[in-house]
Amino acid sequence: MRIISRRRLVFLASAFLGLVSTTYHAVYAEGKQPTPREPLKLNVGFNIGSLNREVFLETGLRKGFFKKCGLDLETKGYAVGGLIIQDLVGGHLDVGLAGISPSLAGVAQGGDIVIVSSQAKNDAPLVVLDSIKSLKDLDGKNVGTPGVSSIQETLLNYLEKKNGFKTKHIYGPPTKLINDLEKGEIVGIVAWEPVAAQAVSKLKAKYLLDTVVDGAEASMVTVSGKLLRDNPAAVRNLLIATNETREYIKTHLDEVMQVAAEKTGIPADVIKDGVKRSQLYISPLAINMDSVRLIVEADIAGGKLHNIDQAGMEQFIQKAIHESHLKTALTATCSP
């Protein structure tokens, strides 16, 4: 075996460092920059008509919060949260910005998905025609919600059980619900914003409740289990960008509302009224676990969580929700 002397080894090391230094200075002398790492592409699903695209995603993309965290979001709109979760479970999405009820249902059905953060709370206002004076007046009447899988449906079920009345639920997209309310085919809606604010501004309608349950979770950041296992840093960066977007919306509300108005054609004051009532996309990202338990109980009772019972509720919640990445993200930043 050939033995390299200590003096020879030192000489070779010095020569190598000199070469690296020369190359470095040559690159920067020519004004070149190192090639940046390619951003990670994430396919993200959101509810159409929920202001998720026009307020949250638009702000985060326009201000570069996701880009700064090394993420390139490809967004796709869906009519209801159940379809988002279906595609997330099927591997067609990496992230679902979807209601907590469809997210929980996806886990209960064996989907490899995990809730990692709250995104919006309180997004379940009850708007009624002026003729309705109290919850009891709704008994036996038709009330609209976005669909069976929606958190709005869950919270209407909870409201009825708690207050001893029963309505007939009518389902449909936002435009249909407003049209049905205008024609008197339904007397109220539990819907997301800005649907509720639009109904109040256009019709002889009013907010009976700004939100069905104060502080209740509505839209969640739900990710594929594969993404969480294979690239936990990407999930952390997603949550950092989500928090920075939330902070910007909160401190630049008028600017954000104006952009949303231009994107939707809805007057900025109407959007702002709904957003301020619900604190939409500006409420804390920490998950309100008391509301989660309330929602899980209501969904078990409503038959929306198959194979889950009261005895196994806590174990199911622990499986469905992982907040560890959120806790670190709330105090972290991404370097440009």
TrEMBL record:
TM regions (residue ranges) = none
Alphabetically ordered keywords of this record: Plasmid, Signal
Q: Which residues constitute the signal peptide according to the record?
A: 1-26
Task: Give the top-rank taxon of the lineage listed in the UniProt record for this protein.
Answer: Bacteria
SsuA/THI5-like domain: which residues? 62-252
Q: Where in the cell is it found?
A: Periplasm
A Pfam family the protein falls into:
NMT1
Cellular component GO terms held in the UniProt record: periplasmic space
Give a yes or no for keyword Signal in this entry: yes
Provide the family line: Belongs to the bacterial solute-binding protein SsuA/TauA family.
Q: What is this protein called?
A: ABC-type nitrate/sulfonate/bicarbonate transport systems periplasmic components-like protein
Q: Which organism is it from?
A: Xanthobacter autotrophicus (strain ATCC BAA-1158 / Py2)
